[in-house]
Amino acid sequence: MREITLDEIESLAVGAWVLGTGGGGSPYLGLLNMRRLYREGHRVVLVAAEDLADDDWVAAVSNMGAPLVGQERLTDSRTIARAVSYMEEHRRTKFRAVMALEIGGGNALQPLMAAAHLGIPVVDADMMGRAYPEAQMTSVAVGDLRPCPLATVDCRGLEAIVETVPSWTWMERVSRRICVEYGSIASTCKAPRTGREVKEWGILGTTTKAVAIGRAVRDAQARHEDPVAAILAVEPGRVLFRGKVADVERRTTEGFLRGEVTVAGIDADRGAVARLAFQNEWVVIWRDGEPVCMTPDLICVLDSVSGEAVGTETIRYGQRVTIIALPPPPVFQTPKGLDHVGPRAFGYDLEYRAVVP
Amino acid sequence: MKRIGIDVGGTNTDAVLVEGGRVAGAVKAPTTADVTGGILDALARLAATGCVGPAGVDAVMIGTTHFINAVVQRRHLAKVGALRIGLPASASLPPFCDWPEDLAAIVRGHVAMVEGGHEYDGRPFMPLDRAAIRREAAAMRTAGIRSVAVSSIFSPLDPSHEHEAAEILRAGIPDVAVTLSSDLGRIGLLERENAGLLNAALADLARDTISAFGAAIAASGLSAPLYITQNDGTVVGAAEAMRLPVYSFASGATNSMRGAAYLSGLPDAMVADVGGTTTDFGELRHGFPREANNVVLIGGVRTLFRMPDLLSIGLGGGSHVAPDGSAVGPVSVGYRLTEEARVFGGAQLTTTDLGVAAGLLALGRPGGAAGIDPAVRARAFARIRAMLEESLDRTKTEAGDVVLLAVGGGAFLVPDALDGVSRVVRVPNGDCANAVGAAIAQVSGEVDRIFRDVSREEALAEAREIATARAVASGADPATVAVVDSEDIPIAYLPGNARRIRLRCVGDIAPGP
């Protein structure tokens, strides 16, 4: 258990954006909130999952919705803290700690914002190891843990609890309706987890991992070295494609940002064309019509120069990008895991093959 | 086709005549405090070369670093009122929240947040709080604010709340200049708002400067139309440039890079453009500046413009030099070089004095640099070299030595040998590269419209046709027109697969008859 420094939070913001695989929203706005909170004297403590007691209650938090909306309705640290307090009021039980639902994107910083206001620690773990768009796409859902209750909060004073649902897919359907009505963004506190459940089904150490990736990128930038190579030096991944964005088609539907991006190859990939499909996050990449990488592998689109991630809501015509693949948490490579987050879960009839063996 | 290109820098005003694909004349005059005098002087000198008469000039294109210098040096900036429409969302991140504190302290006049704005699908987020805007307008008026930046959530999709707020502000504050974030484009409230705030801070300077341009052209007897160059190497009319000066922010740098490529015939190289106040470093690829991929920092402020990827440092021909030579810049004597520099009898030691003392250039009174201690000179040149090498290294995107094009009036500060540079190239008229770049600026055609009842492909094709036709109508050579920016947002609340498309084409000006 130790205090996390603001410099580590700066690295976390960069690393989480890479692990966001295009979604989860840019962590920049969360980082601005954290800078303000640290300036005001708040501090956040990071605790390892192993240090939780089996009967501790842990709040898993995230901002749910379309990343595009988060670019206009800027995240406010008080809203996510309110979601946790609301759940505490509802259950009349205090939480011992908060944790991230997803370490990818802006949601990596949501537990820190809540923790700063509430004065409880953040667990070094999440439930995705990346970002995913739907409620059933988590390790705890693969583990068939209880999906409810769920607390949702909108800054206009809209608050709702989804008390009972029979399955994670029902939780997704019902909470998504609420989220869409809120304007496709809602601050949520997911089904409370015990310390034992976190230790058994959480994806552990992912805050530390995101900090390490972010630090690699920041150090490479400072030394004018290749930041993409720096990521691949700390994570076992590989380069899929280098090119220039030739087309972006985006639509916000059913609370998601969906669409396709076409990238024209440069350098070694000159003449080839990559096509990426996304539902908040990058889901599949085809090279000249052949699928070359797909979920649950992490498809990360990076700015070729800065090494920083490029989001599905901000990618634009003419950008030069390097696309890499990183390995997923093993829990998603099992048959049950692939039912939840494999290509067919996103409507693509493709056979998953791991890019990084 | 005869075109005059003018670059109004902080120190010098350069003018060139480009005719039939070559530079027919190039001159330099000191920039004056009123801007007009310097331009008139430059045009008179250009006329004196015999290359140009008042008739027969097709266009005058002016580029300037005035606006970016104002932000970098924190000078001539107006106190701005920030009005954000979108409460209760985003309250923990108010306007100016990610600005450098020193710049915010100068520009931040009054910050207001009120309820209103839209959702992603066009529904209202909150009703517009008109009473609150009237109250804020009154407070801004009392605080002496004359320029206001308005930003509203999802205004690129529905700008109606921004337009209504502008009306209320104009009714409440006489002669107020209003910048709307929806005029600056993209989704991303904070970056769009930042661009709006910078634009509002430049309102007075833009009005004064561009009016002075017009006055100078009229007084010179030229009847050719006046264009102002923009960040992306294209031109707009004076009224539009006055309204949105942020779009002309980096035009000086874009112009010198394009001018350097044109003059040297080297389409791929690094460029150091050393002006009087700043040096800009950038990279040419295929004759165009490499563009910033994502967020662009201007004076430390995050924005999302289409801009050349540049590194700007406070080093130029007019930079102050510490008495012992240990520090150079960022403050510059600017256009007062001919009064304040030692070689002109002034009291301030500048980099130009060092250049004269070292025999790199001849300027000012004979013997004007005689009293400069060689040890001070050596220390200052070592400092300059270190500044150049560090900046070049930061600008590079890959390891290895590069060819460096040294242009601009202060290019004498760049030594022939630098770490990481295989060859330093200087070109004829290189000190006027920016004016050459202005003269060869491109024209654009744009469309920003809602398309309905067609597929996305058909809508994009139609948008491309319209934008291309507009570029050609503005004088572009159809063979060179290409799409440089394309963004489309579906509008779910409208029937018929409605989609808002913004698309921009640019092309070279067609050779004249």
Commentary on this structure:
The complex is a heterodimer of chains A (about 350) and B (about 525). Chain A has helices spanning about 5-20, 30-40, 65-70, 75-90, 110-120, 140, 170-180, 195-200, 205-220, 225-235, 335-340, and strands at about 1-5, 45, 55-65, 95-100, 120-125, 125, 150-155, 160, 185-190, 195, 205, 240-255, 255-265, 275-280, 280-285, 290-295, 300-305, 320-325. By secondary structure, chain A is an alpha+beta fold. Chain B has helices at about 35-50, 65-70, 100-105, 130-140, 160-170, 190-200, 205-220, 240-245, 250-265, 335-340, 350-355, 375-395, 435-440, 455-475, and strands at about 1-10, 10-20, 20-30, 60-65, 80-85, 110-115, 145-150, 175-180, 225-230, 235, 270-275, 280-285, 290, 295-300, 300-305, 310-315, 320, 330, 400-405, 420-425, 445-450, 480-490, 500-505. In chain B, a hairpin with a 5-residue loop joins strand 9 (about 225-230) and strand 10 (about 235). The relative contact order of chain B is 0.13.
Topology:
The complex is a heterodimer of chains A (357) and B (513).
Chain A: E1 2-4, H1 6-19, H2 28-39, E2 44-47, E3 57-65, H3 67-70, H4 77-91, E4 97-100, H5 110-118, E5 122-123, E6 125-126, H6 139-142, E7 150-154, E8 158-162, H7 168-181, E9 185-189, E10 193-194, H8 195-201, E11 203-204, H9 206-222, H10 227-234, E12 238-253, E13 256-265, E14 273-279, E15 281-287, E16 290-294, E17 298-303, E18 320-326, H11 335-341
Parallel strand pairs in A: 2-5, 3-4
Antiparallel strand pairs in A: 1-2, 3-9, 3-10, 6-11, 7-8, 7-9, 12-13, 12-18, 13-14, 14-15, 15-16, 17-18
Helix pairs in contact in A: 1-2, 1-9, 2-5, 4-5, 9-10
Chain B: E1 2-8, E2 12-19, E3 22-30, H1 36-48, E4 59-64, H2 66-72, E5 80-87, H3 101-107, E6 108-115, H4 130-142, E7 147-152, H5 160-172, E8 177-180, H6 189-201, H7 203-219, E9 226-229, E10 235-237, H8 238-243, H9 251-264, E11 269-274, E12 279-285, E13 288-289, E14 296-298, E15 301-303, E16 311-313, E17 319-321, E18 328-332, H10 337-340, H11 351-357, H12 374-395, E19 402-407, E20 421-425, H13 433-439, E21 443-451, H14 456-473, E22 482-490, E23 499-507
Parallel strand pairs in B: 1-4, 4-9, 5-6, 5-7, 7-8, 11-19, 19-20
Antiparallel strand pairs in B: 1-2, 2-3, 9-10, 11-12, 12-13, 12-16, 14-15, 17-18, 21-23, 22-23
